[in-house]
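Write out this protein's structure.
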Amino acid sequence: MKSAIKTTGLRYWMLRVLDECDRVAADFRADPVHDLRVALRRCRSLASVFEEVDPHRAWRDLRKTSRKLFRSLGIIRD
């Protein structure tokens, strides 16, 4: 029986952000930048949901820090 590869959850998307950062560093074209923005957006969305359950400041900090990078990448992409 094959084991399913997990493609959801905060851990998956946080690791995906790191992978996509490496791709952008190697190839600064529109597709890698877009993929990094998608991974960041998913992390930010999950952090927003977790913040509703756990009001720890770290969730807000994660969203705030990633927002700056997300916007900068949008400017670069455009």
